Amino acid sequence: MIKFKKILIINVYALKDGKYKLSFYLPKTKTGKIKDMKVTGKTMAVLYEHKLCTFKLNF
């Protein structure tokens, strides 16, 4: 079971028509809130207040 206090839920919508596409989870960190995110190819970079993390996307 996923503990919702330890994750952030990210919902993805199409820019063209605003329709919902999917959701995925990111871990919450003790270093702070998310400041920015960027996707390039199959990699997503997430900038937290004091940490930069990269994730491989499988969708």
Structure report:
By secondary structure, the chain is mostly beta strands. It has one domain. It is built from no helices and five strands. A three-stranded antiparallel β-sheet has the order 3-4-5, with no helix packed on it. A two-stranded antiparallel ribbon has the order 1-2. A hairpin with a 6-residue loop joins strand 1 (7-13) and strand 2. The protein is globular and about 35 Å long. It starts with 6 loop residues before the first strand and ends with a strand.
Helix-strand pattern:
EEEEE
Task: State the strand order across the main sheet.
Answer: 3-4-5
DSSP summary: helix tally: 0
User: What can be said about the biggest beta sheet?
Assistant: 3 strands, antiparallel
| Computed Rg | 12 Å
Helix fraction by DSSP (H/I, runs of at least 4): under 10%
How many strand elements? 5
Q: What does the average pLDDT come to?
A: 88
Q: State the distance separating the first and last CA atoms.
A: 22 Å
Poorly predicted ranges (pLDDT <50, ≥5 residues)? none
Structural class: mainly beta
Number of domains: 1
Globally, the shape reads: globular
Write the SSE topology.
Blueprint: E1 7-13, E2 20-27, E3 34-40, E4 43-48, E5 51-56
Antiparallel strand pairs: 1-2, 3-4, 4-5
